[in-house]
Amino acid sequence: MNYLEIDKNHLWHPYNSLPSKTPIWSVKKTKNCKIFLEDGRVLVDGMSSWWSAILGYNNKRIYKSLKKQAKNMPHIMFGGLTHKPACKLANNLVKLTGFNSVFLCDSGSVSVEVALKTAILYHKAKGENRYTFLALKNAYHGDTLGAMSVCDPENSMHSLYGDYLSKNIFVKTPNMGFDADFCEALEDLEEKLKENHKDIAAFIVEPVVQGAGGMRIYNPQYLQEAKKICTKYDILLIFDEIATGFGHTGEMFAYMHTNIKPDIITIGKGITSGTISLGAMLTTKEISDVISNSSIEVLMHGPTFMANPLACSIANTSIKELLSFDWKTKVLEIEKTFRKELEVLREKKVVKDVRAIGSIGIIELNSDVFAQDLQNFCVQNGVWLRPFGKLFYSIVSYTISKKELEKVIKTMVKAVNEIDKKYEKCLK
Ligand code: PMP
C-alpha cells in the first residue's frame, strides 16, 4: 500500500487543498522532542504540535494511564452517568484555577462555543437577550462557526463565509509589548461598550498573547483595566486560555500575570500534553447558579464524547506530571534563551521584530512570501517548524534539552539569514 498516494488522493490537511500543493512529510514515530520521519530523518520538534505537547511525546506515565484506562473503560456517555477520571479532572482543574464549574468537551473550538453559549444563557437567565460579542482585532479563537465569528474579520477566514457568520464587534488591540502602553485600546473598549453594552454578552480575549492572529504579546494590565469596564456594564469577560494555558507564558494560566480573574476560561491543547483531544470551559459558581436556578435551568450543550474517560485520565496524569517538576524555572530558562539568541536577527532587513515569552520564540518578518522556504530549510536541517504568513515562531515542550533548543534556535537564525539574502535582492 502506498500511504503517500492515499494521503495525496484522499486526505485533507489543515487549511489546505486536496491534494496539497505544499510538501507533506510522513511521520513514523515520536519520542519526547524528536519526530522520526518515514524516510529515516529525525527532526527536533520546535512546534510541540501547535502548543499542545507541553511534556514532549510518549511520556511514560501518560502512556501507562492511557493503557490502564483503555482496558477498563475507553468511553461511556456522560448523560446521566459519571466516572472517576472526569471527577478527578474537575477537582484538578478547580484546584489549579479557582473556578467552580467545569464543562468538559472535545476540543478548544468547542470549548469556545460552550463559553459563548454560557454567556448568552447567563444574560437570558437574568431576563436579557444579548447576542453580540466583543473581541479584539487580531483575535483567533478557533475554526467552528461561533468561534470564527469572534476571530478578527480581516485577519481570518471571515471573508470566505461572509454573511453566514454572526456579526460581532471588534476593538483595538493593546500595543505590542509586555510593558507597552494600552490607553488607546482601553478608550476604544470603553467607547464601544458605552454604545453597544445592552446587546453585548461578553468580551472574549486571548490573555497576554494573541496566537494565530499575529503572535502578539501585550501588557497584562490591559486585562485588569478591561475587567473594570466590563464589570461596570455587566459584560462577562471570557479568557481563551487554549493556547496560553498550562504554562506557556511562564504562569500556569496567562491570567495569572494579572490580579484579576475573568468570569469564564476556555482550555484545551496542553491539557493532555498533546496526547488526545480535550477541551474545557470553566466558570464561577455564581454564573452556573444564575443559569441553573433560572427558568432556563440547563447549559444546553452535550457532545457525544463529552468527558471521555480516556482523555480525562490522560489529562489527570499530564497535570500530575507537569506539577511534579519545576516547569516554571524551565519555561523561564527557555524564554531567556529565545530572547538572547534570536536578538542577533533584529538587524536583518527581512526581520520586523523578534520577541519571546515563556516557551514561545517569535520572529516577525516584513514579508509573507518566505514561509515555505523557511519550513523546507528547517526540515533539511533537522528541525520541525511551521511558519505561517510573516510569522516564524517556535513553541517548545518544557522537556526539551539544552542541545535540542540550541538546534532549533540556530536553525531559525540560519534560515532567516538565508531568506534575508533573497529579501535584500528583491529590495534592489
Ligand atoms: N483558541 C485559541 C487561542 C487557539 O490557539 C486555538 C487553536 N489553535 C483554538 C482556540 C481552537 O482550538 P482547537 O484547535 O483545539 O479547536
Furnish the topology, listing elements before pairings.
Elements (H helix, E strand, L loop, with lengths): L2 H8 L16 E5 L2 E4 L4 E4 L2 H4 L8 H13 L11 H14 L3 E5 L2 H18 L6 E5 L8 H5 L8 H4 L7 E3 L11 H14 L3 E6 L3 E2 L5 E2 L2 H13 L3 E5 L23 E4 L11 E5 L1 H8 L16 H15 L3 H16 L8 E7 L2 E6 L5 H10 L2 E2 L6 E5 L6 H26 L1
Parallel strand pairs: 3-15, 5-6, 5-7, 7-10, 10-11
Antiparallel strand pairs: 1-2, 2-3, 4-12, 8-9, 11-12, 13-14, 14-16
Bound molecules: 4'-deoxy-4'-aminopyridoxal-5'-phosphate.
In short:
This protein has 428 residues and is α/β, with parallel strands linked by helices. It is built from 14 helices and 16 strands. The site of 4'-deoxy-4'-aminopyridoxal-5'-phosphate has 15 residues, from α5.
Notable traits:
428 residues; alpha/beta; seven-stranded mixed β-sheet; four-stranded mixed β-sheet; binds 4'-deoxy-4'-aminopyridoxal-5'-phosphate
Distance between the termini: 50 Å
Relative helix content: 25-40%
Rg = 22 Å
Main sheet strand line-up: 4-12-11-10-7-5-6
Q: How many DSSP E strands?
A: 16
Structural class: alpha/beta
Question: How is the main sheet built?
Answer: 7 strands, mixed
Q: If you average the pLDDT, what whole number results? A: 97
What is the ordering of alpha helices and beta strands? HEEEHHHEHEHHEHEEEHEEEHHHEEHEEH
SS summary, helix count: 14
How much strand? Answer: 15-25%
> How would you describe the shape?
globular
EC number: 2.6.1.62
Site (Participates in the substrate recognition with KAPA and in a stacking interaction with the adenine ring of SAM): 15
InterPro entries: Aminotrans_3 (IPR005814), Aminotrans_3_PPA_site (IPR049704), BioA (IPR005815), PyrdxlP-dep_Trfase (IPR015424), PyrdxlP-dep_Trfase_major (IPR015421), PyrdxlP-dep_Trfase_small (IPR015422)
Subcellular location: Cytoplasm
